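EI: anyone free to look at a 641-residue chain?
SC: sure, send it
EI:
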Amino acid sequence: MIPDTSIPAAETPAANGHGESHSTASFKALMLGSIGVVYGDIGTSPLYAFREAVIAASSPVGGVSQPAVLGVLSLILWALIVVVTLKYVIILLRADNNGEGGTLALMALAQRALGPSGGAVVLLGIISGALFYGDAVITPALSVLSAIEGMKIATTAFDPYVVPLTVIVLFLLFAVQSRGTARVAAFFGPLMVVWFAVIAVGAIPHIAEHPQVLLAFNPVLAVSFLVHHGVIGLVTLGAVFLAVTGAEALYADLGHFGKRPIQTAWLAIVLPSLALNYLGQGALVIGNPQAVENPFFLMFPDWALVPMVVLATIATVIASQAVITGAYSLTRQAIQLGLLPRFEIRHTSESHAGQIFIPRINRLLLIAVVMLVVLFRSSSALASAYGISVTGTMVVTAMMGFVVIWKVWKWHPFAAAALIAPFLLLDLTFLAANLLKVVEGGWVPLALGACVMLLMYTWRRGSRLLYEKSHKQEIPLPELVSMLEKRPPQRVPGTAVFLTSNPNFAPTALMHSLKHYKVLHQKNVILSIESAPTPRVDLSERVRMEEVSEMFSRVILRFGFMESPNVPKALAIARKLGWQFDIMSTSFFLSRRALKPAVHSGMPRWQDLLFIALSRSANDATDYYQIPTGRVVEVGTQVTI
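SC: here you go
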């Protein structure tokens, strides 16, 4: 059965803009956890960001100059202050959807505020969601590769083993995903605290030797560098953006840790450590321009090189873990919001609902990541492919943020525009700078994002067309009940539950059951499942029951887009509403549709075939809704689309 995948327009409580974490853990534990999960990506950017930016800014003739180093440092520091601190930490963390953040959570919040006119917001959500997968593929490849490359400093003989060792680390990383992150998550925070402490302390001696790097805090140096370097300045800006990749994770993990722990961790630990490290790298390159080859590792003494490579590898694995977990969460949200077909979702923790594993996504990510490593073979080459997907997501986030500030926070549109416009302009500038890298490798995330976007659009459009076509052939439920009361069929004991996407019409499975078996159960339930435009639904609002007649009841179950639907568990709540639900005397009837392309369709034939292929790949409804297989009866039908 393919349920209706449209986003319901049902009334839901408005989200407030100041949601905190759902967890009852202590503030310190939440802050420590956020350092391990939220800041893994942006925390490992010093491995490559400064190096790539300085190389882009350097003259082929004159080499690395002090003004270029200070200009790059100023751009990096102010990017961290404006993009991460102001836009995300201070403003967007307040734009939560019932305590949840992330691009699709923001989309649902904005769409609910706009109502029927929110189609453009859904398109923006599809774009940003698709681009996120590009980030989820490139981050593990670039981070782990850049860490392993540190061994080349010790000996060039290690060079041939960089790519094979990177692939092995990545295979191990993806292999352990099925075990879940519950056991190792407790170690993420302390390890990343050690990482931030080490990269900050290691930079201090170099800053003391060349204190002129502190001039980089003057924003005039950043503006002057861009004005006087033309196209080179724009290319450098594209490399500078590598320093703020991972900022979206701040917003995406809002529901796991809450606003205040994430803000405190950034302002007290992460931002100072990153600023010190970038200043230290700049001081090293000013004193020794040859160190631009790998300023991060060359900051440390020779005896510390191997321990730093090990620590960097651990940090990049943690950074990769955060992005991979984000891809799982985004996929679950996309499924619930009707943007992707059903995939198998496994819960890896009994106490944390957010810890999930999606085998199909895991396999696809592993294949894509390994292909990138083998194709590009170095972090410098791969860095050219990085940034476009993240900047695209940031642009879309800013646009949807404007809608939320205007419609949800009730700001005057001019005031909302005045707040968001500077950030949007900066994001667009970063996007333009990164688009210069399309030929060098930037086409990779764009191509990947375009594929995911096409899949999301096709699934959403095809599901709507299928719903409309099925709706025309259905009989209104009251009409069928009236017919059955006049000419009642043979009755059998027990309860039959018929799943349908539209509770106002007789389900296809019910009509076929009457046609072939010519019997009716003593109790018959017309069950439909709604995806609410909120992350979670309160248990008091989970079940809605309505008595249609003596023989029929109508039940609607509502789940948030961050929840995995569990039908038997939800129906147990119905006991409080008077239904004596017993799983052992209940049979679930599902309609399994065999789709065929129609001669005349609302989509091109190739898109019809793509939608049919997606529907066939969808996980079985029995597994997705967690219905015991022994209680399910499937009725096959053929539908043209």
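EI: The first helix runs from residue 27 to 37.
SC: 👍
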